[in-house]
Specification:
Strand content: under 5%
Largest sheet: none
Number of helices: 16
Number of strands: 0
Helix content: over 70%
Shape: globular
């Protein structure tokens, strides 16, 4: 088949081999799959543990057990898989997650391979109901077995290096991790997926939480005069990613929340020794998942509650507000630069 023919066939099958497809769309969907299974299960487990209400523990166990399937379906959906491929991806996700010993990157790699190959054969034969699920599942399980574990081990090792460095140098790594993960949260990639893939917990998880909160609360307060209460809630409890269009137009609007994250990060690691679980460290104040994760990790205490209040809410608002006013006075941010279409 000629190159033009191959391109036409791939386009017909909706196979788009791009960075956007695999590192943004699929990775973002992976975070949603994790949120709908492992993360929500962790939250229910915390509720069950603290209240001793058994039903929450039962729900948590079922939710966590669905992690692999949720990952597979979520990623395949993001890749616009046809029905038989989408449903078969549940099996692939389970295999990928299990063979990578719970690292979601295993499910990501396996599901991407399986979904794209499944799309290529979908509705190409008269026995599609047998061929498509077979190709999807076989290719996915093979990818999970031969590729997933290696990739997952690399991610685990890299994550361990970051966590060890944060414990050894909590001040400097607090700045670095907070700033980088916070930036990732605002970019059209998934900070939650990155933290989960790196199993970024402990002090590094606390720094990541600080950075994400600084971006979300920072942008919410910084843009209050343009967007009001609706913008405050949309960004503070939703996502600062809403500001990406404005950042592209004027990158200087990103300075205030990022500077705030570089201050709150080391405060989290050095002053409060704030830790978090890896499933929540990249979520920030989205649905208050980040603070809930801190509570799950640290278990309570006045120091923890003061840390959550200051690092996740008060300091990001105050610091971003101050930096924002300075930037407005020097003309780097003008009225309307942070306006959202809500």
């Amino acid at each position: 088949m000629e190159q033009t023919g191959i391109k036409a066939f791939l386009k017909k099958k909706n196979v788009n081999i791009t960075v956007q497809t695999y590192l943004i769309d699929a990775l973002g969907a992976m975070a949603f799959g994790l949120f709908a299974s492992l993360l929500i299960g962790t939250i229910f487990a915390t509720i069950g543990d603290k209240t001793q209400i058994q039903i929450f523990t039962v729900i948590a166990d079922y939710a966590k057990s669905a992690t692999g399937a949720a990952l597979g379906v979520a990623i395949a959906y993001a890749l616009k898989a046809p029905q038989l491929v989408l449903f078969s991806a549940a099996t692939v996700g389970i295999a990928g997650n299990a063979l990578a010993q719970g690292n979601p990157i295993g499910a990501l790699v396996a599901t991407v391979v399986a979904t794209e190959l499944g799309k290529l054969v979908s509705k190409e034969t008269r026995v599609d109901i047998l061929v498509t699920p077979s190709v999807t599942i076989i290719s996915g399980v093979l990818a999970a077995q031969f590729i997933g574990p290696g990739v997952a081990k690399f991610m685990d090792a890299f994550g361990m290096m970051v966590k060890t460095a944060t414990e050894m140098q909590p001040f400097f790594m607090g700045i670095l991790v907070s700033a980088l993960i916070g930036i990732a949260l605002t970019l059209p990639i998934s900070s939650a997926a990155i933290c989960m893939a790196l199993t970024l917990d402990g002090l590094a998880g606390g720094a990541a939480t600080a950075g994400c909160c600084a971006q979300m609360i920072g942008f919410a307060v910084l843009s209050f005069r343009e967007n009001g209460v609706s913008g405050l809630l949309a960004q503070g409890l939703g996502t600062s990613m809403l500001q990406m269009g404005n950042i592209v137009k004027n990158p200087k609007v990103w300075i205030a929340p990022t500077l705030a994250s570089m201050i709150t990060g080391p405060i989290a690691t050095v002053v409060f020794q704030m830790t978090n679980i890896h499933t929540a460290s990249g979520m920030g104040t989205c649905g208050l998942v980040g603070p809930i994760g801190v509570y799950t990790s640290m278990g309570g205490g006045s120091k923890m509650w003061i840390g959550i209040l200051l690092v996740c809410l008060v300091l990001p608002a105050v610091l971003a507000g101050i930096f924002g006013e300075i930037l407005r006075k020097v003309g780097w941010i003008k009225d309307g630069d942070l306006k959202l279409d809500l």
